[in-house]
Amino acid sequence: MNVQAQRRSLLALLAAPALSVLPRMASAGAQMEEPLADAVRNALSAVVNGSEPPEPVFADTEARLYYLRWKVEMNRRLVARHSDLTTLQHRDEFLQTLWYNSKRAKLDMALVLGLIQVESNFRQFAVSSAGARGYMQVMPFWTRSIGDGDSDKLFQMKLNLRFGCAILRHYLEQEREDPFMALGRYNGSRGRAPYPLAVQGAREHWEFSG
Question: What is the reported pTM?
Answer without folding.
Answer: 0.85
